[in-house]
């Protein structure tokens, strides 16, 4: 099939490259000429494991351009994957989506094109985009005859750092439209993934337990709500584990054991029960805020979702409080943070807990040293006020430090020779912000081990 993808961020790029790898003819359009030039050269503008390898394998079926006029004509499917950042009131800012929809409409010329909302959008956006498309199409002086189009929703469930695997071997595929023909087109588009009949990438073999992928084919509004409901539930699960973690600290329980005991219940599951400094990134914060804003439009409260957000914000403050409990005075103290990206295997800094923790420590007079094995370059560009605190080596973070905080679970940190660094510190306080280090081992090595919950 002929496919166009509008936007080459995490979602758009992963979608476009994956569909091209499967054999579809894909054109990705982005207005950023520098990004397009980079992609044409086989380089990935984001850090995503395996993306450049998949770019190379998909290259025969893949084109990058800044021109809607080049990308849209003849397309069977147009994915719109532009950013929808949070507005001041918590609702998604849809100006980029509007602009993209208007531009798409100006170049539609196929007998039937499915325009797919791939961006995370509020419930009802499908109808809104459909109206924009039709209004913009009607303004065309060169409006061709026989052109039909319809809007569908195809929410993504990608984990940054695992985006390719989540696309090719997903838990499920959700498609929503009020037009039956659109559902048929998307069913056909995804059939190789649904049936798992494609030859896997050389670097990412099919999991041994992979089976046919469930397809949820539903109406527009339901597909849109599925995305918000799923992300809000995962955010809630993490916040619940953190709230229980605070109680565990008070009563003398081990939150990692409590989480393990909960997770073995098949009705609950072990994933997203990891206690620590909380979630970040582009999805959970934005989507929970948008869900609350959407409910407010219908005079509904979302107290559970709101509480999940409050707990998550509090975890970052608790990390600073733990340091103050140990050091008594933060002014003048040197404190190192290991990890700046919101999670490992990505350079994404959006809503990263490390940023709040660093800023809070600086506001209290502490001297911070920051390190990340991958995200430092992006950090210098996106966080210029904090960039002077960056360290190029892990040794520099530990040297003469009063405390070190493990913020991001990079494998590079988990595999450190921790015995090497304890002697470099002024006071060997180690705050485990993710509850992933062996507390007894760290204490034997000479660290004063502290966890966020405990």
Automatic annotation (TrEMBL):
Hydrolase: is it a keyword of this entry? no
Q: Which UniProt keywords apply?
A: NAD, Oxidoreductase
Tagged with keyword Plastid: no
- Reaction(s) catalyzed by this protein? UDP-alpha-D-glucose + 2 NAD(+) + H2O = UDP-alpha-D-glucuronate + 2 NADH + 3 H(+)
Q: Where does substrate bind?
A: 157-160, 227, 272-276, 280, 343
GO biological process terms on file: polysaccharide biosynthetic process; UDP-glucuronate biosynthetic process
Q: Which NCBIfam families match?
A: NDP-sugDHase
Family to which this protein belongs: Belongs to the UDP-glucose/GDP-mannose dehydrogenase family.
Q: What is this protein called?
A: UDP-glucose 6-dehydrogenase
Species of origin reads: Actinoplanes derwentensis
The taxonomic lineage of its organism, from the top, reads: Bacteria, Bacillati, Actinomycetota, Actinomycetes, Micromonosporales
């Amino acid at each position: 099939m002929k496919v166009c993808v509008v936007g080459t961020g995490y979602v758009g790029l992963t979608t476009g490259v994956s569909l091209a790898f499967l054999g579809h003819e894909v054109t990705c359009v982005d207005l950023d000429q520098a990004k397009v030039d980079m992609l044409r050269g086989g380089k990935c503008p984001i850090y995503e494991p395996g993306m450049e390898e998949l770019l190379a394998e998909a290259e025969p079926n893949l084109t990058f351009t800044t021109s809607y006029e080049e990308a849209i004509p003849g397309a069977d499917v147009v994915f719109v994957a532009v950013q929808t950042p949070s507005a001041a009131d918590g609702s998604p800012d849809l100006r980029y989506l509007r602009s993209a929809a208007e531009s798409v409409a100006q170049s539609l010329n196929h007998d039937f094109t499915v325009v797919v909302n791939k961006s995370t959008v509020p419930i009802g956006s499908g109808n809104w985009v459909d109206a924009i498309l039709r209004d913009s199409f009607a303004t065309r002086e060169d409006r061709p005859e026989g052109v039909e189009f319809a809007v569908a929703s195809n929410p993504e469930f990608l984990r940054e750092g695992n985006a390719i695997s989540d696309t090719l071997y997903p838990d499920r595929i959700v498609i929503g439209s009020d037009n039956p023909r659109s559902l048929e087109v998307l069913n056909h588009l995804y059939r190789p993934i649904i049936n798992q009949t494609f030859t896997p990438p050389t670097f990412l073999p099919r999991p041994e337990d992979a089976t046919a992928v469930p397809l949820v084919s539903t109406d527009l509004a339901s597909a849109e709500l599925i995305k918000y409901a799923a992300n809000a539930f995962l955010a809630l699960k993490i916040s619940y584990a953190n709230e229980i973690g605070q109680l565990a600290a008070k009563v003398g329980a081990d939150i990692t054991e409590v989480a393990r005991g909960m997770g073995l219940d098949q009705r609950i599951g072990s994933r997203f029960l990891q206690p620590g400094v909380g979630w970040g990134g582009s999805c959970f914060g934005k989507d929970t805020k948008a869900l609350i804003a959407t409910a407010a439009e219908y005079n509904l409260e979302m107290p559970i979702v709101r509480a999940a957000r409050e707990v998550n914000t509090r975890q970052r403050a608790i990390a600073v409080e733990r340091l103050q409990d140990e050091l008594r005075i933060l002014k003048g103290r040197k404190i190192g943070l290991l990890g700046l990206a919101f999670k490992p295997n990505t350079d994404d800094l959006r809503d990263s807990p490390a940023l709040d923790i660093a800023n809070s420590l600086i506001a209290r007079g502490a001297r911070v040293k920051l390190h990340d094995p991958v995200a430092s370059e992006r950090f210098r560009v996106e966080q210029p006020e904090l960039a002077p605190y960056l360290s190029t080596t892990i040794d520099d973070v530990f040297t003469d430090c009063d405390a070190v905080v493990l913020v991001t679970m990079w494998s590079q940190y988990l595999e450190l020779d921790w015995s090497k660094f304890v002697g470099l510190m002024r006071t060997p306080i180690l705050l485990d912000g993710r509850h992933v280090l062996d507390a007894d081992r760290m204490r034997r090595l000479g660290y004063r081990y502290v966890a966020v919950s405990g």
